[in-house]
Specification:
By secondary structure, the protein is α/β, with parallel strands linked by helices. The protein has a domain of about 200 residues: 3-Layer(aba) Sandwich (Rossmann fold). Helix content is about 45%, strand content about 15%. It has 20 helices and 13 strands. The strands form three sheets. It has a six-stranded mixed sheet with strand order 3-4-12-9-10-11, sandwiched between helices. Strands 8-5-6-7-13 form a five-stranded parallel sheet, sandwiched between helices. It has a two-stranded antiparallel sheet with strand order 1-2. It starts with a strand and ends with a helix. It binds pyridoxal-5'-phosphate (PLP).
């Protein structure tokens, strides 16, 4: 299958090119040329299938023309070695817990899938030494680093802002060693991202090194996120609650929700979506006005959603033929400040015993406010609350138990290389590799 650029200034690429390059040459985002509807029998029997079986059917629709069945199946089954259960929280509202993977956040799915697919393609191309650059404000770095850990022929450089990620997040990508190097940049997340962008535009660097990126612009990272929307539907169907399913997605760069929108286009019976935001309300403003106006991001306690210019907005526009009306017809929005988020975490814990993380709290609150009679709501619980330990403990006034997997990371020794935020220093570091 071919992948076209949302900017439509270059010829469509193969899956292999799209995955290896990440971004199209005209700076657009790659989109699959076809979105295949899945057969009715699949939806009728989905409640009898496992997560891995469901995911393989979806993966086959996306990638089956380009990858042999055995290889694709192995990649899917290896990626989804953990569960994503739907858990009831209150009347008519369910949490889809996406935090049972290695780094306890939903990005594990895309991180691991992309690592396997990229590794497959570079072997096929006979490449040996590929460098993945990834800038992170916390969660992306850990998911990508853990996804690529030990993958032959690929070295990952995680750039993160010194002192601006939580200690738990930091240990998830600084303690790994092997093919993972953490670069501690004396600057902000924006500085890290600017360094990565400059590296991709630098001719001398690109002549010497095979560079690629691993954020959610890459089709291999964002498309696999569609898997768990199907699995959520399957679990609701088992409970007899699948009619009028509304899905609410705590959103930052809009990669996660875009994967869900692909699912709907493939026939998955989701009635509508809600994009939940923190104070970074660019998408809500778009829904209200029809005008997209990016803004510098503001920092919040749901920091993985602190995005002022969501990169996947271009994909949402493209999916709906640039029609504001069509987008408004299927997606609604909301925006909550830190106080509302904290209030939701505290009140939900008190009333139900369910502990939300600050991102999931935006999703839960949106369903509480917007769900209509007869609808069943599912929000994506995008990370484990213990990943935001201090924030969550301060809100509920209690200690939060740290899952074993997280404790293991915290035992490791931090290894990082300190860098300034100027490109010259970063470039000379990379040129020496
Ligand atoms: C990345 C992330 C989000 C936002 O996902 P997008 O795909 O960027 O919209 C939400 N919550 C958590 C915990 C995240 O790590």
């Amino acid at each position: 299958m071919k992948y076209y650029s949302t900017n439509k200034q270059v010829a469509p690429a193969s899956l292999q090119e799209a995955v290896v390059k990440g971004l199209a040459a005209d700076r657009g985002l790659f989109m699959p040329e076809k979105i295949k509807a899945l057969p009715t029998e699949f939806y009728e029997n989905i409640d009898k299938m496992s997560f891995q079986e469901i995911a393989y059917v979806v993966a086959d629709a996306f990638f089956g023309e380009d990858i042999e069945a055995d290889t694709l199946k192995a990649i899917v089954y290896d990626t989804l070695s953990f569960d994503a259960p739907v858990v009831p929280v209150s009347e008519g509202i369910y949490s889809l817990e996406l935090y049972h993977g290695p780094t306890l956040a939903f990005k594990d799915v895309g991180g691991r899938f992309m690592a396997r697919l990229l590794s497959y393609f570079i072997k096929k191309q006979g490449q040996k030494d590929v460098k993945v650059l990834v800038a992170t404000s916390g969660d992306t770095g850990s998911a990508v680093a853990n996804g690529f850990l030990g993958v032959e022929g690929i070295h990952v450089y995680v750039l993160y802002p010194k002192g601006l990620v939580s200690p738990i997040q930091e240990c998830q990508f600084t303690t790994l060693g092997q093919n993972i190097t953490a670069l501690e940049v004396d600057g902000t997340f924006d500085d890290c991202q600017a360094l990565v962008k400059s590296a991709f535009m630098d001719e001398e660097l690109n002549a010497k090194l095979n560079l690629t990126s691993a954020n959610s612009i890459n089709v291999a990272r964002f498309l696999p996120q569609a898997f768990y929307y199907f699995y959520a539907y399957a679990q609701l169907k088992k409970l007899g609650k699948e009619k009028e399913m509304v899905v609410c997605v705590p959103s930052g760069n809009f990669g996660n929700i875009t994967a869900g929108l692909f699912g709907k286009k493939m026939g998955l019976p989701i009635k509508r979506f809600i994009a939940a935001n923190n104070r970074n309300d660019i998408f809500l403003n778009y829904l209200n006005t029809g005008v997209y106006t990016p803004k510098p991001s503001v920092s919040t306690i749901a920091n993985a959603m602190d995005v002022g210019d969501p990169s996947n907005f271009a994909r949402v526009l493209d999916l709906y033929g640039e029609s504001w009306e069509a987008i408004k017809g299927e997606i609604s929005g909301c925006s909550y400040d830190d106080e509302q988020i904290a209030e939701t975490v505290a009140a939900t814990y008190k009333a139900t015993g369910y502990l939300l993380d600050p991102h999931g709290a935006c999703g839960y609150k949106a369903l509480q406010e917007q769900l209509q009679p007869g609808e069943t709501g599912v929000f994506l619980e995008t990370a484990h609350p213990a990943k935001f330990l201090e924030t969550v403990e301060n809100i509920i006034g209690e200690k939060v138990e740290i899952p074993q997997k997280l404790q293991e990371f915290m035992k490791g020794t931090k290894q990082s290389i300190e860098l300034g935020k100027d490109f010259a220093g970063f470039k000379s570091y990379l040129m020496g590799k």
